[in-house]
Amino acid sequence: MTATATPAAEKSIYRPLELFDTDRLLDQDERDIAATVRQFVDTRLKPNIEGWFESATLPRELAKEFGGLGVLGMHLKGYGCAGTNAVSYGLACMELEAGDSGFRSFVSVQGSLSMFSIYRYGSEEQKQHWLPR
């Protein structure tokens, strides 16, 4: 048997949980959310991560893109939030983490610390102003 090097672009993308065949446990919405976030990571984040790191920048427009993707506060119900289940939120975070842990941290801190605090303890006026619409 001869081993040959395969360019990185030609290698199949390995997903860590494939070994356990977890997709069979997910419903179609959960699989779709994971696939959507994975595609965003592969097409928008991964090609740019090195450049952003080298220039010590994080484009401000990424926050709006994460919002448009629906991952900010996605586990909250109402106020324009997606209202997904915990599994979907975990899958989205896992896909972001596969690209870069900083992006997963950004999304989970915004959703679970900032937005959840407003959602749970804020006045109606604060919720209307600060949570997605």
From TrEMBL:
Top-level taxon of the source organism: Bacteria
Keyword terms of this UniProt record: Oxidoreductase, Transit peptide
InterPro entries linked to this entry: AcylCoA_DH/ox_N, AcylCoA_DH/ox_N_sf, AcylCoA_DH/oxidase_NM_dom_sf, Glutaryl-CoA_DH_mitochondrial
GO molecular function, one term: flavin adenine dinucleotide binding
Domain Acyl-CoA dehydrogenase/oxidase N-terminal per the UniProt entry, residue ranges: 28-133
One GO term of the biological process aspect: fatty-acyl-CoA biosynthetic process
Protein name (Swiss-Prot/TrEMBL): Acyl CoA dehydrogenase
Organism: Mycolicibacterium fortuitum subsp. acetamidolyticum
Lineage summary: Bacteria, Bacillati, Actinomycetota, Actinomycetes, Mycobacteriales
